[in-house]
Predict the 3D structure of the following.
Amino acid sequence: MDGNSFIIDSLTYSSLWGGGSGRSLERINVDLPSSDNTNWGTSVSLNNATPGKINSISPKDFDLQLSEISITPVPLVENSNLTAQILITNLGNNQANSFTVELYN
């Protein structure tokens, strides 16, 4: 409730939504309905919960990850060229128009 005793949000909890085993139930996206059971899940925080912080399962603005890498030829031959194909995916809310991938030996 807010300061005027108006209900801001409510839901009927189900343990099937996630949480348990010492981990908190977290809302994935605060802009989606709280009554949507697919908008809830188990915290992946190292602390098992995120009080006062953004929920650990909420999508980030930008969240790039290396999804796949393949190198040819296999087996690699010393002092020869190789080709690397790298697939980067963005799980974030915003489109990543520019980023850099650095590979090190």
